[in-house]
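Table S5 (text form). Sequence records supplied for joint modeling of the two-component complex.
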Amino acid sequence: MTLSRPAKWAFGLMAVVCLAFIYVPLTVVVINSFNASRVFSWPPQGFTTEWWHAALNNPGARSAALTSVLVAVAATLFALVMGSLVAFALGRYSFFGRQTVSLLIILPLALPGIVTALALRTAFKPWLGTSWEWLGVAVGPTVIAAHATFCIVVIYNNVIARLRRMGTSPEEASMDLGAGVFTTFRLVTFPLIRPALVAGAVLAFGLSFDEIVVTLFTAPADVTTLPIWIFQSLFRPNQGPIVNVVAALLVLISVIPVYLSQKLSGDPGHAGGRI
Amino acid sequence: MTAVQDAPVPSRAMGLSTWLYRRPRARLAALLAAPVLWLALAYFGALFLLLMTSFYTVDDFTSLPVRAFSLDNYQTIFSNPAYVKVILRTVAIAASVTVVAALLGTPMAFFIAKVVPQRWRGLMVALVVTPLWASYLVKVYAWKTMLQPDTGVVAWLLNPFGLSGPGYGVVAVTITLTYLWLPFMILPVYAGLERLPDSMLDASADLGARTGRTLRSVVLPLVYPSIVAGSVFTFSLSLGDYITVQIVGSKTQMLGSVVYGSYTTDLPFAAAMATVPIVIMVVYLAIVRRTGALDSL
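The corresponding structure-token record, covering 572 residues in total, follows.
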């Protein structure tokens, strides 16, 4: 588009302001993790890696991180199955109540977080005391179920978009050549939707790993995910330096999923899959 | 009828495959059964239970819900000016977040979609998306350190000018929520602008419109549904927040924090309070529907 020079400069300036707004706070978090001062104050008092050593060896933070990974993996696997099933149903068939089902899927993400949180807590109340021990940390079925419920929609969105784009001809060709329903799925459909499944899984994992709004309401008392650990530590001033390091670490590793999804989709415009 | 029985059945899987192939309804039922049962029971059932609970009262001694229908909780909310104020404040914060996000996000999205050269576009989108992946709590924490009174980064920047930062409170909550949900505004608007053909902008210029006129009369009306689509996210997410307000809100109360503060002692009241954002969202979505923005979600 042919924009006037001042207009280009104006948009450029606004973009720079916007990017500064996005990145300055994250940079401050990373710098702050090397701050020698025990109490936060800007500018930093001196450089130290002491807190990084302390945080990486902090048993609470480590087991919370492991708990988060386990919960996220379990929720993602559950959501992968449910989300794909429902994407096939809505993407390949038209039936009475189709609109209702698609509304039902999107509801857990569309409604305000506190509503989903309290509703799930009310429903899961009988199982809130149950927790399992996996790899030495406590993991709760209620928190996995809660995460899976709102992860279904991200898998669904990715898979149904893929199904629409690929059409039905590859499957029809396979059937015409004599392959049955299962063979067609295994050799034709599944390889075609695999990138969408991976992109959706990355997104679902990220969503669950980071979730706090619903987690605080649905986690059993002995289950501490990383966000719960950070949330509790925020109110303990002496944990400050350790929280700084964990926060900085989380900022730095957030590059991984973006890189992964760009690499997988091969389309930079869709970084992070479909939300 | 006999056709099925006469057909050769080499293996059980083959038989099932043929059976399924001939019955699309059975395939559909097999696909739908588990997820729909799950969502209906675990989620829709939960919402229904929440709605029911909001009509119960609580036993003063045991703090347990008493199952007798009453409108007491709703009466408490709407007859107490403090709660009405909380609701209005929450809606005002959510609305401000949406407006600020649109004002910041739309030029950014336009810059990426129409000003930046094609080869830089992917990188720019990645730059906007990456913070979406940074942990929610970390981002709130980042603003806690930014806005800390006297010793925060904002205070450090403003003090030489004789100004002080906003400190913790409603302004801090609005800034932080805008920060959290900004990508949810930029991405739909960017997608909408990408669909808008450049030829349309060139046509506007050929017909004599200057840049400002083209932006106002061509770009803005066409991208408006995308802005509204983004606003559904920013509005809903802000409406239901109770974490940010606890960390950077000082003593500010929002709908979410009232629910969070009362669900252990008075579940029916918390349930009634949680019904309020549902109603607000339904009204908001009904208004949004008219713009046709929901089709582009």
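Note: Residues 205 and 211 of chain B are 8 Å apart (CA to CA).
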